[in-house]
């Protein structure tokens, strides 16, 4: 299941492989997905993933709060209960992260992470179940971001300029390590997008230097080909099977 969660996180953010002038991410936006897994040849819905945004104001600054929640449907909890939360606090204009937090509860296994960003340095605080808290400091590439803040960079891209077969790369930090990811444009397709109806989408393929992703052009994300570039469908192939995330509801966009 942890492989599934890594793939989900990576698929949502991998399209952020370049940058241009920042665009505003709407506050109050909510995207809801159904997470499905291939069980005995049938794609079975197991979990719900919710992405949402709001503004948090401190005495010194206002931050855009990016929130990602993943939970199994109640009928599956007795088999493998998941309650995961990913959060990022970023500059509203640039999406540069100041703080990343992750709380994982998967079948009773727990882990919490906190990354504090300062220039090209991360101070991490990690606590795993039945293990002592660990604090570390490590350097990152100037363009590297956490998985939550980077997923929202897709609003800043002009994907239309990519040619079919063209690939580009970027880096994410996940589980206390930097991971290079390669992205390739595969074209356009019409995809059902929940309450948004049928939408023309960019079809993008992901490759990463990890043994989690399997198969050529089998890990895919579909982004609406409008200015919002909402991820409406994600497909993944991992060593233990295949699955997908399907947009069911979009509001505040």
Rounded to an integer in angstroms, the radius of gyration calculated over CA atoms is 17 Å
What ranges have pLDDT less than 50 throughout 5 or more consecutive residues?
A: 13-22
The assembly state of the depicted protein chains is single chain
How many β strands by DSSP? 15
Mean pLDDT: 86
- By secondary-structure content and strand pairing, the structural class works out as mainly beta
Portion in strands: over 45%
Q: Characterize the largest beta sheet: strand count, sense, and whether it forms a barrel.
A: 15 strands, mixed
Verbal overview:
By secondary structure, the protein is mainly beta. It has one domain (2-241, 244-248). Helices cover 8% and strands 55% of the residues. The chain contains three helices and 15 strands. It has helices at 2-13, 77-80, 147-151; strands at 30-39, 42-57, 62-72, 83-90, 97-106, 109-118, 121-128, 134-139, 145-146, 167-174, 177-192, 198-208, 220-224, 231-238, 241-251. A 15-stranded mixed beta sheet has the order 8-7-6-5-4-3-2-1-15-14-13-12-11-10-9. The longest helix is centred in the first third of the chain and has 12 residues, at 2-13. The radius of gyration is 17 Å and the shape is globular. The protein starts with a helix and ends with a strand.
Write the layout of secondary structure elements.
Blueprint: H1 2-13, E1 30-39, E2 42-57, E3 62-72, H2 77-80, E4 83-90, E5 97-106, E6 109-118, E7 121-128, E8 134-139, E9 145-146, H3 147-151, E10 167-174, E11 177-192, E12 198-208, E13 220-224, E14 231-238, E15 241-251
Parallel strand pairs: 9-10
Antiparallel strand pairs: 1-2, 1-15, 2-3, 3-4, 4-5, 5-6, 6-7, 7-8, 10-11, 11-12, 12-13, 13-14, 14-15
């Amino acid at each position: 299941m942890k492989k599934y969660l890594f793939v989900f996180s990576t698929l949502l953010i991998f399209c952020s492989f370049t940058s241009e002038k920042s665009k505003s991410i709407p506050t109050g936006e909510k995207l809801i997905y159904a997470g499905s897994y291939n069980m005995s040849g049938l794609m079975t819905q197991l979990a719900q993933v919710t992405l949402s945004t709001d503004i948090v104001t401190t005495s010194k600054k206002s931050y855009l709060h990016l929130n990602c929640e993943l939970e199994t449907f109640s009928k599956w909890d007795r088999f493998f209960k998941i309650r995961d939360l990913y959060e990022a606090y970023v500059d509203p204009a640039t999406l540069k992260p100041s703080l990343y937090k992750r709380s994982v509860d998967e079948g009773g296994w727990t882990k919490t992470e906190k990354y504090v960003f300062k220039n090209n340095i991360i101070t991490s605080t990690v606590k795993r179940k039945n293990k002592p808290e660990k604090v570390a400091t490590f350097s990152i590439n100037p363009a590297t971001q956490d998985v939550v803040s980077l997923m929202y960079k897709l609003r800043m891209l002009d994907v239309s300029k990519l040619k079919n077969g063209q690939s580009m790369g970027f880096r994410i930090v996940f589980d206390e390590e930097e991971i290079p990811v390669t992205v390739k444009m595969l074209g356009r397709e019409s995809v059902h997008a929940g309450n948004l109806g049928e939408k023309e989408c960019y079809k993008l393929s992901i490759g990463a230097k990890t043994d989690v992703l399997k198969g050529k052009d089998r890990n895919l994300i579909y982004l609406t080909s409008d200015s919002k570039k909402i991820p409406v469908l994600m497909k993944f192939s991992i060593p233990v099977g295949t699955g997908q995330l399907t947009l069911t509801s979009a509001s505040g966009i």
